[in-house]
Design brief:
By secondary structure, the protein is an alpha+beta fold. It is built from three helices and five strands, in the order αβαββαββ.
Length: 91
Amino acid sequence: GSQKHMSKKGRTLMTFVSVTGNPTREESDTITKLWQTSLWNNHIQAERYMVDDNRAIFLFKDGTQAWDAKDFLIEQERCKGVTIENKEYPG
């Protein structure tokens, strides 16, 4: 990765992940939990916290993994977008 990404190595990084449509909090919880599991299966460890009916925080212990996770997440059908450090990546 670039220098910018490398500077995040070993540092915690928080990203916001939004779900499309008008989901209930429960629905978003289920969807983002699936994504979280897929990330764990790819050795990308993220803690997940619901912050809105359609939005969760994914917290990466190793900040460099946030961009790998973003690449996966924006490919997902129900992903509206991922925000890393105030930059929005549409799904």
